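Q: Start with the shorter request: fold the first protein.
A: Done. Sequence, then structure:
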Amino acid sequence: MIIKNREELIWSGLRARAVELIDAGISQVLPGNLLQTAVKYNKKRKQLTIKGTSYNISRGRIFVIGGGKAARLMAMELERILGAEQITTGAINSKSDGFQTEKISVTLAGHPVPDAEGVLGVRNMLALKARYDIGKDDLVICLISGGGSSLMPCPVAGVSLEDKRDITWLLLRCGAGIGDINIVRKHLSLIKGGNLGRFYEPARVVSLIISDVVGDNLASIASGPTVPDASTFKAAYNVLEKYNLLDKAPGNAVDYIRRGCQGLEAETPKELNNCDNYIIGNNRLALDAMAEKARDLGLNPFIVTTEQAGDTAAAAMAHADEFMQGKYRGFDVVLIGGETTPTVPENAGKGGRNQHYAAVSMLAMKDCTTPWLVASVGTDGSDYMSDTAGAMVDQRSLDTVRMLGINVQYYIDRYDTNTLFQLIGRSLIVTGPTGTNVSDIMLYLSG
């Protein structure tokens, strides 16, 4: 089972159903399941088939690179499907530990803030080309998943890792969306924005991608290391200007972007003829699995969207209002996927966007007279806190708040919802690292 503290959470029929649905959704997008569906290998013919497209490598070798929260489990499954002996070597960056690979070396790197180990891991990937004289007959398989932007840092010359960390943290703190953050990252990186794919020319690069990005924009997932980049240095400059960071961001980084705007630094590649990119998993697959499980339980599910974005609190209040106004009347399971963006105040407490979403929802649903439940969970198992994936709330949560005299808004305003749920009890969802990442799942139940 995915949820480890299920016995603690289940105190009603609605909660039991919620746990089953969340388990079904995350299980569907575990790397092992995704690769088994998407990747086939004929050892006799040395033919690799990915989602119906075949690659003959009888004259070449297979190398594996990449990074992301799911990369290590992806690498394990790839070795199983191909046979480890079919892989010459590989190097990936990941976050999760405890999964063993044979031919593919794993560097444990930092997330959400990049670290020196991540840079070392990327250097190891790049070193493979010269060390093994990788050429046009070889196939480079790139494993990409959510978190890859932070887990695969490789700053351009003149920009330090500390500069990259500082500018990333500034963007995160001011509420910048992942798209804006990635535009800046691409133009301060040697591998993002298609640069990794260009580096391995003339070898064919085939990327297997688990998407954590709303809309599955290839250029945004892990900052698109093997995808042509339409953004420019000017766009990166505009992001910094938009969030008033030109005077706050590290001078070396801002200066590099300014030089790029003047044509003094090389732009990211605008086409990549040697790269093929395949999305093998995304939020839609998780929600579809939840909907199927709901029907198996005799429930009537409705998927609102897989592209939820915007401010966390605003989204939670809007959907609570829709729920109470009867927009989803006739459906006893309402599913939403995506990734909201909270604006975190100074001196914030503990918690992540899923806990914040659940807390705001609880307050917004206080006048609902029919039985209800709201859960919000990160499919990677970490809601900015490694020991918490999200939270679920219901009428009993509100009863507890009232009995204890807890001021919920106080904790919401301080972005300290983990402390809030510790006080309420039996609310936090614990999965541990799931080894995958397809953004967040928001679940509404009525009954």
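Q: Next, the second protein, separately.
A: Sequence, then structure:
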Amino acid sequence: MNWHFLGGTSEVTGSKHILETQQARILFDCGLFQGRRKQADEINHTLDFTVESIDAMVLSHAHIDHCGNIPTLAKRGYRNPVHATSATADLLPVMLRDSAHIHESDAAYLNQKTNRKGLPPIIPLYTLEDAEASFPLLRVHQYNEPIELPGGIRLTHVDAGHILGAALALIEVPREGRAPLRIGYAVDLGRHNLPLLEDPVQMTDLDVLICESTYGGREHGDALDAEAALGDAINRTIARGGKVLLPTFALERAQEIIYHISSLRAKNVIPDVPVFMDSPMAQALSTIFEKNHTYFDAEYKALHKQVGSVITPPWLTFTATVDESKSITSSKEPSIVLAASGMAEHGRILHHLKHGIEDEKNLVLFVGYQAANTLGRRLINGESPVRIFGDMFDVGAEIGVINAFSAHAGRSELRDYIQKARPKQVFLVHGEQEQREALAKLVQDELRIPVALPNNGDVVDFDALD
């Protein structure tokens, strides 16, 4: 009963695992590794297994670092089921079509250079055709629905509280003459009190817990404080006649922000200024959120009953065309503008920053993680001037950060989840090494539970842990 740690162990990207028994091999997630181009290209082309050996796949959720390499499976001939929640199955086509477009566009851009140098053409990791070939493989399930996998393995998805449709997996593997081995797959684990989402479901009495450690050494601000902080930031900016420029991730974070603005407007806490969602992808995903409203929590349902549509309200303007986006940048009217990308590395947010970052009336508000070397991180670090589209701009706008929006469990939340799961052994993955080590020390010192920090390529016989 071997567990193969193939990706996303000492980093927060490229999640990929295999459970192997004598009867079956089950793949858990097949995410894209995201990093420096050459390294990412090499890792993403290397699956470390043959697709013919995989009897079924289980997908935790629709973030690209967990689902983004599924088209490569289809490209190489995989035709077995991909098990996911119904909401994840709705989100996946939007995410994978966008990913395929990026791969094809990047290859086309790079080939302009290779053609001039007489070098062989660059082939995209996968195409739109490959992405669409993977959609018929989806098998749709609900939370708490028992799923029978090959080899007699029993799977139950429970709510991860991370993003719409995200699932933790309770895996029960049959053993001759003994009780089934209970494995908890908690990658990614969400938080309590996040907007829209139900809280994570606690798995218990586990033999093995495979747990994320993204923030194993860091605490978050209280999620309940996020809305008040957002309201204060909006009021402060509008009062001085400025714009709130919000770099935001198209999946989940954009919808969360609109939820909070809906709530703030309903309470008359903020003025009724124009609000723009300048992201066609976020618009498509928001429509899927509305369709899957049954996944949402009691607070969402109460607000929906009060104001009607919460995710796509009538006062929210979606901008489909580039010309519509340009009209926002040219306007001097106080407003709230949400645009991708969340780390301000690409996308329409760069046009808004180019036109607004020097204006001291404006606020650039970050509500998500900013990786090292991104424009978002440089702005948070106080750098000025900064380069946008090749030109240098002095930073006159206020730069703000709200840390309470993270969709990943923080240090204390991870500790509490592990303690209540009562596992005999914990394997920490999905975290930079410093974060993993900090959480491992906490679990060992306070909970007295054995902890392992596997590396990519490690194989562990879970049946031998007894």
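Q: Describe the second briefly.
A: The domain at 2-218+407-465 is CATH 3.60.15.10 (Metallo-beta-lactamase; Chain A). The radius of gyration is 23 Å.
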